[in-house]
Design goal:
It is built from no helices and 11 strands. The protein has 109 residues and is mostly beta strands. It has one domain: Jelly Rolls, CATH 2.60.120.
């Protein structure tokens, strides 16, 4: 059973979207009372590469994607309920073949 939350309470949602790759990846930032932040986003079909400053935990809420972390050869399929971790100062390739992939990205300091 998945531990991915269905909602967050007592947060501030930033209304300005984070738009990447001509709108094929879009997210909104959610700020928590303890100072932490997450983004809630959508990835449309296509291959994309993201670099990281902080470490990230990516949780797949819906849909499916293929993920390859920088420095690794393995490509992993992630679907609803799956989580993957990306080290700080690194990056990852992510590809959605069909439909929309919904995610929660937690920034780990």
């Amino acid at each position: 059973m998945s531990n991915i939350p269905a909602q967050f309470s007592n947060v501030t949602a930033v209304t300005k979207a984070n738009v990447y790759f001509d709108g094929k990846v879009v997210s909104h930032t959610v700020l928590f009372p303890d100072g932490s932040k997450k983004t809630l986003g959508l990835i449309y079909p296509g291959p994309f590469h993201f670099g990281t400053d902080l470490a990230e935990q990516m949780e797949i809420v819906a849909g499916e994607c293929q993920v390859k972390l920088d420095g690794e050869d393995a490509v992993r399929t992630c679907a609803q309920g799956d989580t993957f971790h990306v080290p700080a100062k690194s990056g990852f390739d992510i590809e959605v073949k069909a439909g929309i992939c919904e995610y929660i990205c937690s920034f780990v300091s």
